[in-house]
Design goal:
Shape: elongated
Number of strands: 14
Largest sheet: 8 strands, antiparallel
Strand content: 35-45%
Oligomer: single chain
Radius of gyration: 26 Å
Number of helices: 4
Distance between the termini: 52 Å
Order of helices and strands: HEEEEEEHEEEEEHHEEE
Structural class: alpha+beta
Length: 247
């Protein structure tokens, strides 16, 4: 090869390297630009205390917001339907946030019926679950399983948190299983029970990209109280939300 050929080859290689560097720079700039408006939604743990209104009704639990042991619980903090906070710690707004809970509903009913037989049982039909044995109260067991939030601003740019409901069935059946376990003095077995569920958030950034995050929801017990012939049982626990995947 002549010198001119080497020069031409080196020029071609240099041009290719320059093109590659320019392409990598564009990718980096695109990633940096996307990160400036990418939202990041998180859900802190929900700590609560559950008090049963009856010594004989496993579906009588009311969840309360957390409070100190020596504090008097304000009546306004009583929650018939529990809610967890959702926050945006990213740099951009999250739009069209869809919240979907997923859990093994039938298995939880089967578990309760196995633990509670023959004193109590629960059956489901027509989108409702019913308390059997005594006056049967009906609950929509699909309530709050899917929710939508129009937008969630980053922390500091608007409301710092939004509320998402815990599904009414999930809340009720967990409380019912705990009631039976306490009543039957089998609280040790509670720590081996799987109350786990999943919560999936699907939303868009301001550029139109779709983001999906799945959280594993677990129940962590702080305290269990048996109660007595006149005082119903109670328990303190938390729902913990651990990110499983995001994309």
């Amino acid at each position: 090869m002549q010198t001119s050929d080497y020069i031409s080859l080196l020029s071609s290689i240099g041009a290719c390297l320059a093109a590659i560097m320019a392409w990598l720079t564009l990718i980096e700039l695109k990633q940096q630009r996307a990160s400036t408006y990418r939202p990041d939604l998180v859900i802190p743990s929900l700590r609560f205390q559950a008090n049963y209104r009856s010594i004989s009704d496993p579906l009588s639990a009311i969840w309360h917001l957390p409070f100190g042991h020596d504090e008097k619980l304000p009546s306004s903090d009583t929650i018939q339907y529990a809610t967890a906070d959702i926050k945006n710690i990213g740099k951009g707004a999250a739009k069209h946030v869809n919240v979907v809970w997923s859990y093994q509903k039938n298995k939880l009913v089967e578990l309760f019926n196995a633990l509670a037989a023959p004193d109590y049982s629960i059956e489901t039909s027509d989108g409702m679950f019913w308390r059997v044995n005594g006056a049967g109260s009906g609950y929509n067991h699909r309530m709050f399983e899917s929710q939508n939030i129009p937008y969630i601003y980053p922390v500091g740019d608007g409301p710092e948190k939004f509320k998402i409901h815990v599904p009414s069935f999930y809340q009720a059946i967990i409380s019912a299983i705990i009631f039976i376990s306490i009543k039957n003095r089998k609280v040790d077995e509670l720590f081996d029970l799987k109350f786990g569920s999943e919560l999936t958030l699907t939303y868009h950034d301001i550029g139109g990209s779709t983001i999906r995050t799945t959280f594993i929801v677990s129940v962590d017990f702080d305290m269990l109280a048996h109660g007595n012939d006149t005082d119903p049982p109670m328990f303190q626990a938390s729902l913990d939300f651990t990110p499983a995947e995001s994309g």
